[in-house]
Amino acid sequence: MFHHAEDIQWHDNLVEWVRTGSIRILTISEHVGHRLDRNFRALAESNNETMNSAGYEYIKKDIYIPILDLPQKRNHTSRTLSNVAIQGSFRFDRRDYWGVYADLLASLKEHPQAWGYSPLIAPDSAYQIDETAPLQPFQLHLIGNADDPQVPFALSNVVRVHRDLEYDDFYSLIQSMDMVLPAFGSLECLYFPFFFQVDHFLILPLSADYDAKASFTMAISLECNVPILVNQWMRQTYSFIDDRVTVTRPQAVREIFAVKALRTGQWSPQLVVDNQVKNVMMAMDKMIERGWIRSADQFTIFKDEIWARNAEVVRRILSDV
Predict the structure, then answer these.
(1) What is the DSSP pairing of strand 196-198 with strand 201-203?
(2) CA neighbours within 13 Å on the CB side: how many for 175?
(3) Contact between residue 166 and residue 214 where contact means Cβ atoms under 8 Å apart
(4) How far lies 227's CA from each of 4, 19, 71, 240, 272, in Å?
(5) Which of 57, 165, 202, 319 is in Cβ range 3.0-4.6 Å of 169 for a Cys bridge?
(6) Are residues 132 and 219 in the same domain?
């Protein structure tokens, strides 16, 4: 079963397995399967006779989306988007922590009350909860392990770090969240061994989570009945998700600014290309109108459909179809 199409640790044995028809591949997301297909087609066209005669194009592949059927302890009554989680190892090449911190600091500086905080009392101070603010204070929860997430001191009351949790505590914490942010990074170079420079704009390489790797964050949000904030690119990549379990932002609006819009019900354009402002505004209006709350029934129906497709995959495997 594959979650990363570029994991080649097992390839030493692959040729013999393919030649003898001894391998069948399960991927846990469609985009991982597409990437494997492309890799296998390249091997099938190899100039190496051992490779191109093995029969890579005949490898059987299925998609099995592993969503656990967890007991739902979620007792959610919040109507203000206040608790948001970023889940994953505290690696800056996997998650855009610096970008999230920078956006949150910029938005807090501009409208601290929209986040439930008072303005900074000094440049080297931390934001404090404003008891008179009309909205509940916002809390960003970083749930993971490994490296130090290096939270700026100014955000020390806004960002909470949860490290190395036991399974029960981990799932309970996720279930208590209002929303999950993917915060996928863009530093993993998939196609280019360098950054491209076009005029004065730096084009960053793509994140593996959009191309070759299936993120656990997507599964955990579904398992815990917590909506995940996505963009259209992510919707196309993780093609099994839909509006019943996600909140979709336009890609021109970064995650933190989308969260603020969902908290306040208001949004004004930031830096977007002029001829796209209308499209972005329409997408933001749609996102705000739909809101961020998704019902338990929506998640249940959605997951029942996933599990039914998974059962069909198991039937095909057992029948060797």
Answers:
(1) antiparallel
(2) 16
(3) no
(4) 24, 43, 17, 14, 26
(5) 165
(6) yes
Q: What is the pLDDT of residues 37-61, one digit of tens each?
A: 888 888 888 888 888 888 888 888 8
State pLDDT tens for residues 94-103.
Answer: 788 999 999 9
Asked if 64 and 28 count as a contact pair (C-beta separation under 8 A), the reply is yes
Q: What is the dihedral of CA 28, 32, 34, 36, to 10 degrees?
A: -110
Q: Are residues 49 and 99 in the same domain?
A: no
pLDDT tens digit sequence for 219-278: 999 999 999 999 988 888 888 899 999 999 998 899 999 999 999 998 876 555 556 678
How far is residue 225 from each of residues 97, 106, 118, 207, 293, measured CA to CA in Å?
24, 30, 32, 25, 10
The verdict on residue 23 lying in a domain is yes
How many domains does one find in the chain?
2
Q: What amino acid occupies position 126? A: A
CATH number of the domain to which 216 belongs = 3.40.50
Nearest alpha-carbon partner for 138 in 146, 129, 147: 129
Type of residue numbered 173: L
Q: Give yes or no: residues 266 and 313 share one domain.
A: no
Residues 190 and 314 placed together within one structural domain of the fold? no
178 near 81, Cβ under 8 Å? Answer: yes
Is there a domain that residue 53 lies in? yes
Looking at the structure, do residues 107 and 166 belong to the same domain, yes or no?
A: yes
pLDDT digits (tens, 9 = 90+) for 169-200: 999 999 999 999 998 875 443 333 333 343 44
* Same domain? 309 vs 250: no
Rounded to an integer, what distance in angstroms lies between the CA atom of residue 102 and that of residue 237?
27
Cα 113-279-182 angle, rounded to 5 deg: 55
| Containing structural domain, residue 134 | 83-297
Q: Please report, as a single letter, which amino acid is at residue 44.
A: A
